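Kindly review both lines to help learners:
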Amino acid sequence: MGVTGPPLGLAYLAAVARDEGHDVRIIDGIAERLSLADLEKRIASYDPEVVGVTATTATIYDAYRVVRLAKRINPNVVTVIGGPHATFLPRQTLEECPHLDVVVRGEGEETFRELLDVLEKGGGIEEVRGITYREGDRVKSTPPRPLIKNLDELPPPAFDLLPMELYNFEGRRFGTLITSRGCPFRCIFCSSSKLFGRRWRAYSVDRVIEEVKILHEEYGVREVEFLDDTFTLNRRRAQQIARALVSEGLDISWAASSRVDTLDYETASAMRRAGAHTLYLGIESGSEETLKFIRKGVTVAESEAAVKCAKKAGLGVLGSFVIGFPYEREVDMLKTIALAMRLNLDYAQFTVATPFPGTELWEIAVSKGLLLSK
């Protein structure tokens, strides 16, 4: 949609680090349109002891360039990387980028907090759970860290460290929030259940409203996107959030994501009354065979019903589709295109099936020799 959103992961990490008494800065090079030369000046002027970066598979080589730059400025700086790519390929990440010191695997807040504490005290990082690191010429990993049980214990994201004035959608200040983590489903093209666990964990409704208020009242945000994998996984909670937005008089418009089998008219209507305008539906395919292969756990009929439900409630619908799965036939892809055309969608988003690390699709591609590049 041509919108750049705040890097929430970095904002959460910065908030945790600041709570421990550390001086923290965030550089959003994408939103600020910084060149490497610009970035070099910013890092050099701050002269940090630790530089952390985050990356997906698509941006991993950009992250390597930033880390190399940080080490060139100060060879003694400790460089840390997190994000899905490094989480699932920690050894490869360290081997590919000799300028990297530590990989934080999975959910990063508690691991980063502990890592900074150990570094500040001059201790050994081998006791920090959830990291992969260098020890001489060897790469070592510590045991995984348990997931955070109570998300409300985390401080709100450090929005004040971000260039909030640069995030806009159709002329309105734009912000993002995540109100839950974890996914109980096992779609073969997604790594979310492995990254944040299959047990769904949610912020309290009060905490969600608190963060919306911060965005709205302190930064003038009028447009919010809830980035949960499935905002409607718990329909009762989704309705409670919607009612709370209305009762608090929060004048925002917003969007969220849903599976086609976790939506009903009552929930969709409550969302619309609370200012929601668009629902992102993961429809994926118009072929029943493909839906079974990718373990989506839904049918074409359920997709059709979900779109009708959302439209009846007055919500716009963005339908997401994926084509090109292994063993998918031309007829399957044509069924997907035909479904997208006959559904009453406001937007149709098509992506080519991509085997990202951490997904079952990645494992299939590796085992069958289907990867043409890293």
About this structure: The first strand starts at residue 50 and ends at 54. The radius of gyration is 21 Å. The chain has two domains: 8-141, 167-367. Residues 205-219 form the longest helix (15 residues).
